[in-house]
Design goal:
This protein has one domain: Metallo-dependent phosphatases (Purple Acid Phosphatase, chain A, domain 2, 4-Layer Sandwich), CATH 3.60.21.10. The protein starts with a strand and ends with a helix. The longest helix is centred in the first third of the chain and has 21 residues. The chain contains 7 helices and 11 strands. The protein has a 6-stranded mixed β-sheet with strand order 4-3-2-1-10-11. Strands 5-6-7-9-8 form a 5-stranded mixed β-sheet, covered by helices on one side. With about 250 residues, it is an alpha/beta fold. It is globular.
Length: about 250
């Protein structure tokens, strides 16, 4: 039986920016009646553990507890409307993004933080049925309904969605680059494959991004009639979500 999957790319909850977009997302998930919801990772931005800012004045004011609280609040807003329904929740997946993986890097470089900070602070098991961790220091990969999901260290270039198809030879979805690109091909034997690079679920641009942030696309993807890697692709921009649900 075919499925409907909603994919949420790189939400980057950040205590210096409003979490209102997760209220819109929560209402959207109820309306979509998705079978599966996939969070591609970097749900937590965790600027307090950024290696780029260590030793700089900006790093002094950053606060780990605020980082965690922002992400937990985003989870409650995102999943609250679904949890309040009597109907069965969608199956849920989350990938550990490179921003969440900052905790492991911080513990490697500063072992005395052990017991003070840790991956369990994200409380993913409370909200998701499946948590895809890094494996051997590299981003995790999972197959969902014949679609390969990847996070962190993705392919890039001028046509990244096309490159995904060439690299894996199967339908693939990835996050992390924050740009939006989609490609599809059909083989001489009738096999349809899709490549999708899915932007981000942000309505702000991080201060480290510079002008490249103007290329980002905020929104979520809806994959309809998913079966054996084939699907109908739909992008819903964050401005449309705001207009409908704010």
């Amino acid at each position: 039986m075919s499925k409907r999957i909603v994919v949420v790319p790189d939400p980057h909850s950040h205590w210096e920016h409003s979490n209102a977009r997760f209220d819109w997302l929560g209402k959207f998930l109820v309306d979509m009646k998705a079978d599966i919801v996939v969070n591609l990772g970097d749900h937590f931005d965790v600027p307090s553990l950024s290696e780029f800012d260590k030793g700089k004045r900006s790093f002094v004011s950053k606060n780990y507890r605020k980082d965690i609280d922002a992400g937990l609040d985003a989870h409650e807003r995102m999943w609250g409307p679904t949890k309040r329904q009597k109907k069965k929740r969608p199956e849920s997946w989350v990938f550990e993004g490179n921003h969440e993986h900052r905790i492991e890097r911080a513990l490697d470089s500063t072992p005395q933080l052990e017991g003070t900070i840790g991956f369990n602070d994200f409380d993913f098991d409370r909200y998701y049925d499946h948590v895809v961790r890094y494996t051997g220091g590299t981003p995790g990969i999972a197959e969902i309904c014949g679609i390969t999901g990847v996070s962190g260290r993705p392919v890039s270039g001028e046509r990244p969605a096309h490159m995904l198809i060439n690299k894996y030879g199967a339908s693939c979805v990835q996050g992390h680059t924050h740009i939006l690109d989609y490609a599809t091909r059909k083989s001489p034997f009738g096999k349809i494959v899709h490549g999708a690079v899915l932007g981000c679920y942000q309505d702000y641009i991080n201060d480290w991004a510079g002008n490249i942030g103007n290329m980002w696309r905020g929104g979520v993807a809806v994959l309809d009639n998913v079966e054996d890697g084939n699907f109908d692709f739909r992008w819903v921009g964050i401005d449309s979500l705001k207009k409908e649900y704010a």
